[in-house]
C-alpha cells in the first residue's frame, strides 16, 4: 500500500488554510492512502485548531517560530514516522493548485524519480513581476551549476520526495530549505525531475523575508554554505588560489624592479606578496582538511539514514502488532539486524 502525506508548513495561516485544505486531492492514481500533515511553526492565531477542524490527520507544533527550514525538516521527520512512502510539500497560502499534486507524485509512483520539483514557469508566470522573473531565472541558473542538476525552478516549494530519499536528507540551513535541499540532492545523485504546475495569485506578502535584497543575500549565503559543505576541496582551493594569484602580482612587480636595478625601495611589495601567497597556501590546505572531514560527514549521514529506517520500522511494527502480542524493542532490533 502506497501512502502519501501532504505536509504544509504554517505560520499564522488560520484564514487561508481552510481553502488550501479543501483544495487538496482525496484520491490520486497509484496512491492508496492520503493524509495531511500540518507543521504549526509557532502560530498565535489558532492555526493548529483550524487544521484539525478541517481534517488534518497530523499536527506538529513548534512552541516558538523556528523558521521555514526547521518546519520543513520537522514535517519530513513526522511524515516518515507516520509511514509515508511519498511526501509532498505545499504552501498554506494557496499559491499552488492542489490538483497538480497528482502530477508531482506520478514520477515517484512510476519509480522514475527520487525528487520532483513543481516548475512554476518563472520566465512567463503572470503572477510574477518582471524583476521577480529575472531574479528567479538567475537564481535557478546558479543553483543548477552548484548542484549539477537541471532544475528550472530552484526555489519552488511545491515538491515531492520519496521515502528513501527523505531518509537521506537533513536540512542544515536556518533560512529556506529549497536550495539547500537541491544541492544536497544533486551531490547525493538523486534522480530529480521537474514537472510544470499552475499557480494562483497570493494577496499577502511573503513572511519568509522582508525585502528582495534581504532574500537575495540570505539565499546566496545558503547556497554558498551548502556548496562549501559538499565541495570543500574545490571551494577552498579556488579561494586559496585566488589569494595566491593576487599575491603573485606584487612579487612579480618587485622582481621586475629588482631586475631593472631598482628593487631596494620596494621590499614591501615582496613582503605583501609573500604573505598573500602563504595565506593562499594555508587556505588550500584547509580545503584538504575539510575534504577529510567531509568523508567523515558522509559516514555519519549514512549512519543517520540507517538509524532513521530502524526507528521507523520499529514504529511500524508497534502499530501493526496486536495489543495482546508481547514483544520488546531488543527483539525487534535483533530481527532487523538479522
TrEMBL record:
Pfam families for the chain: Glycos_transf_2
Domain annotation Glycosyltransferase 2-like: ranges: 8-169
SUPFAM superfamilies assigned to the protein according to its UniProt record, in alphabetical order: Nucleotide-diphospho-sugar transferases
One annotated GO molecular function: transferase activity
Native source species: Novosphingobium taihuense
InterPro entries: Glyco_trans_2-like, Glycosyltransferase_2, Nucleotide-diphossugar_trans
Name of the protein in its database record: Glycosyltransferase involved in cell wall biosynthesis
Keywords linked to the UniProt accession: Membrane, Transferase, Transmembrane, Transmembrane helix
Residue spans crossing the bilayer: 235-258, 270-290
Amino acid at each position: 500500500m502506497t501512502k502519501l502525506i501532504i505536509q504544509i508548513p504554517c505560520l499564522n495561516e488560520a484564514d487561508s488554510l481552510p481553502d488550501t485544505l479543501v483544495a487538496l486531492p482525496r484520491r490520486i492514481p497509484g496512491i492508496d492512502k492520503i493524509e495531511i500533515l500540518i507543521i504549526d511553526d509557532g502560530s498565535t492565531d489558532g492555526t493548529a485548531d483550524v487544521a484539525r477542524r478541517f481534517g488534518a490527520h497530523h499536527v506538529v507544533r513548534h512552541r516558538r517560530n523556528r523558521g521555514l527550514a526547521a518546519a520543513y525538516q520537522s514535517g519530513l521527520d513526522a511524515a516518515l514516522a507516520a509511514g509515508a512512502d511519498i511526501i509532498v510539500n505545499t504552501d498554506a497560502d494557496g499559491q499552488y493548485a492542489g490538483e497538480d499534486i497528482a502530477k508531482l507524485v506520478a514520477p515517484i509512483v512510476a519509480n522514475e524519480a527520487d525528487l520532483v520539483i513543481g516548475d512554476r514557469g518563472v520566465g512567463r508566470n503572470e503572477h510574477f513581476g518582471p524583476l521577480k522573473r529575472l531574479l528567479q531565472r538567475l537564481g535557478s541558473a546558479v543553483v543548477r551549476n552548484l548542484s549539477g542538476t537541471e532544475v528550472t525552478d530552484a526555489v519552488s516549494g511545491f515538491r515531492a520526495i520519496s521515502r528513501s530519499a527523505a531518509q537521506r536528507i537533513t536540512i542544515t540551513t536556518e533560512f529556506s530549505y529549497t536550495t539547500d535541499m537541491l544541492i544536497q540532492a544533486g551531490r547525493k545523485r538523486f534522480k530529480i525531475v521537474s514537472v510544470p504546475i499552475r499557480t494562483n495569485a497570493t494577496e499577502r506578502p511573503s513572511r519568509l523575508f522582508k525585502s528582495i535584497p534581504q532574500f537575495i543575500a540570505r539565499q546566496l549565503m545558503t547556497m554558498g554554505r551548502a556548496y562549501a559543505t559538499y565541495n570543500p576541496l574545490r571551494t577552498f582551493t579556488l579561494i586559496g588560489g585566488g589569494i595566491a594569484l593576487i599575491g603573485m602580482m606584487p612579487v612579480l612587480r618587485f622582481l621586475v624592479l629588482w631586475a631593472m636595478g631598482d628593487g631596494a625601495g620596494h621590499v614591501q611589495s615582496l613582503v605583501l606578496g609573500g604573505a598573500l601567497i602563504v595565506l593562499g597556501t594555508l587556505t588550500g590546505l584547509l580545503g584538504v582538511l575539510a575534504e577529510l572531514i567531509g568523508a567523515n560527514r558522509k559516514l555519519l549521514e549514512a549512519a543517520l539514514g540507517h538509524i532513521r529506517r530502524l526507528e521507523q520500522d520499529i514504529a511500524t511494527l508497534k502499530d501493526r502488532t496486536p495489543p495482546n502480542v508481547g514483544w520488546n524493542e531488543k527483539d525487534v532490533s535483533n530481527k532487523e539486524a538479522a
